[in-house]
Amino acid sequence: MSVCIRTAEAADAADFAYVLCESWKAAYQDLLTPEQLTENTDLARRTAFFERLLPDAGCFLARDGGVPCGICSVGPERSGELSGWGEVISLYTLPAYWGRGLGRALMDRALSALAADGYRDVCLWAFEANARACRFYEKFEFEYQ
Question: What is the CA radius of gyration of the chain?
C-alpha cells in the first residue's frame, strides 16, 4: 500500500463522495434502515455537497496510487457545546482498507491539523453500536459521553 494523504481540492468532490458512500454502505448496513442508507449514500447528492464544500483546508483525501481510498475532515466543534474544541468531523476508508493502517494515518493527519490550528481538546461523534469504529477511536483515547 503506497498511500498519499493530501488536502482535498475542488476536483476531488466525486472521489470524496465515493469513499464516503461506499464506507457508509458497509459500516452502517446494520445500523440504519434501508431507506436511511439509500438516502445518505446517494452519490450524486453527496458529490454536489462536496462540490460546495471543497476545497477546504480541513478536508483530506487518501489515494492508493490513483485510487481514492480514504477521507477525513476536521474543524471547530460544531454543536456549540464545547467552546474552543476541535472536532474530527468525518473519517472513512473503503472497506478493503479496514485494518490496514489507513484509518490510523488519516487520524494522525486529522489530529495534527487540529493541533496546528491550536486545538488542545478534540471530540468526535460515532454510533455507539458501530463497535468497529468505537474500538478504533478508543485506541486514540477518545471516551464515550
Answer: 15
The strand pair at 59-64 and 3-7 is best described as antiparallel
Pairing of strands 59-64, 86-93: unpaired
Three-class secondary structure of residue 60 per DSSP: strand
Q: Give dist(CA 125, CA 100) in Å, integer.
A: 22
Q: Give the residue ranges of DSSP H helices in 7-145.
A: 13-27, 34-40, 43-53, 102-116, 131-138
CA distance readout (Å), 80 to 18, 85, 87: 29, 9, 11
Would you say 90 and 73 are in contact if contact means Cβ atoms under 8 Å apart?
yes
* pLDDT tens digit sequence for 62-103: 999 999 999 999 999 999 999 999 999 999 999 999 999 999
Residues 39, 138, 123: CA angle, nearest 5 degrees: 65
Q: What is the mean pLDDT of the chain?
A: 95
pTM for the predicted model, two decimal places: 0.93
Residue 92: DSSP 8-state: E
